[in-house]
Amino acid sequence: MSDARLVVRLRKTADALERVVALVRRRAFTVRRLSLAEAGHDVVEVYLRIDEAKTPRDRVRVELEKLVDVLDVRDVTGDPAVRGARELLLARLHPERAPGSQAGRTLQDERGTVLELTGSPEEVDATLSRLTAEGALQEFVRSGEIMLPWGETGKGKRRQEDNDP
Questions:
Q1: Where are the alpha helices (H) located in the chain, listed in sequence order?
Q2: Domain 3-78 carries which CATH code?
Q3: I need a labelling partner for 125 at 20 to 30 A (CA). Which of 13, 42, 74, 119 fits?
Q4: pLDDT of the chain along its 165 residues, tens only?
Q5: Domain-wise residue ranges, the chain
């Protein structure tokens, strides 16, 4: 399985994200993960992880660049910062089936045990698979992948004016 990773910078307008999602749907791009984050004044970053075996990254990039609200599209597949992509998992465990030891931090609330885990997307996937197989998983939510593709390994540091309100 070969995944490509793209970061799409959009103008923060009412329809910008809708246009991106509609394009992905119309073109039937195989998206494995999609995350969204504010990236400064009037700019939003969309992080796409696509299955390159089914959808060539250059095709996705070219199609996205045609959209009016897209400022730029960066292929960060080989960027060392991508290897540092992280994800947050919060999982409520069945009280009677919760495993004794697991990665992450466990919290107790009025409804039982909550597992909090930060790790690579692969680590989160593996933990979810294990908890499901053990019958310990009651419900969960994950943040989606986050990373810092604009760091020292990128094509330049984020300009200060991008971060000013």
A1: 16-27, 57-65, 121-133, 160-163
A2: 3.30.70.260
A3: 74
A4: 588 889 999 999 989 999 999 999 999 999 988 888 888 889 999 989 899 888 889 999 999 999 999 999 999 888 776 667 788 999 998 877 666 556 677 777 777 788 899 988 889 999 999 999 988 889 999 988 777 655 443 444 444 444 444
A5: 3-78, 84-142
